[in-house]
């Protein structure tokens, strides 16, 4: 009976240790850039676009705004959204079918402690599960929505809502004007 207790204690200890390790395991690599900001890439998915890359733009800006900003608003609390700074963005790589291949983030150094690994992972997973409607995308140098001859493209967008970006830009402009007086 005594050996059964030891086995049970060892088993429970092992499970607790495994659970604790899985909760604290880093999911992202934070690389400090010369600018002082960070590029944040997933440790678990290193898929990159291969083949011919192309520029894209949106034929329907509302589609783009609704698609990505709705995810950001669902994942990040209002307090976190309001505390983010300019230059905190996502970059998504997708293929010609509209399937997302990868996602990375550029994080303002002031926001590194605002966005947790859990926040970034939630954003990452939501972005990775998107299927982009390619009828809303303009492709290539002539940005013709009929030209689908590419293998991948990258798009980026701010993690800050338009309202907050406008507010931050206004504060920055006011600061510059005040400084120049």
Keywords:
181 residues; alpha+beta; five-stranded antiparallel beta sheet; two-stranded antiparallel sheet; 41% helix
Describe the fold and architecture.
- By secondary structure, the protein is an alpha+beta fold.
- 41% of the residues lie in helices and 21% in strands.
- The protein contains five helices and seven strands, in the order αβββααββαββα.
- The strands form two sheets. The chain has a five-stranded antiparallel beta sheet, covered by helices on one side. It has a two-stranded antiparallel ribbon with strand order 3-6.
- A hairpin with a 5-residue loop joins β1 and β2 (38-42).
- The chain starts with a helix and ends with a helix.
- Residues 17-23 have low confidence and may be disordered.
Shape: globular
Radius of gyration: 21 Å
Q: Could you tell me the strand content as a percent range?
A: 15-25%
Average pLDDT, all residues: 81
């Amino acid at each position: 009976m005594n050996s059964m207790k030891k086995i049970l204690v060892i088993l429970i200890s092992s499970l607790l240790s495994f659970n604790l390790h899985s909760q604290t395991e880093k999911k992202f690599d934070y690389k400090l850039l010369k600018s002082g900001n960070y590029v944040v890439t997933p440790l678990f998915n290193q898929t990159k676009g291969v083949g011919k890359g192309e520029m894209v733009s949106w034929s329907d800006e509302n589609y783009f705004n609704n698609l990505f900003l709705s995810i950001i608003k669902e994942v990040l609390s209002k307090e976190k959204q309001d505390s983010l700074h300019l230059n905190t963005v996502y970059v998504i790589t997708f293929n010609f079918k509209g399937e997302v291949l990868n996602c990375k983030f550029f994080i303002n150094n002031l926001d590194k402690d605002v966005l947790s690994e859990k926040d970034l992972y939630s954003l990452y997973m939501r972005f990775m599960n998107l299927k982009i409607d390619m009828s809303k995308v303009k492709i290539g140098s002539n940005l013709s929505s009929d030209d689908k001859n590419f293998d991948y493209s990258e798009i980026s967008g701010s993690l800050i809502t338009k309202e907050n970006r406008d507010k931050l830009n206004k504060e920055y402009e006011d600061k510059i004007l005040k400084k120049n007086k």
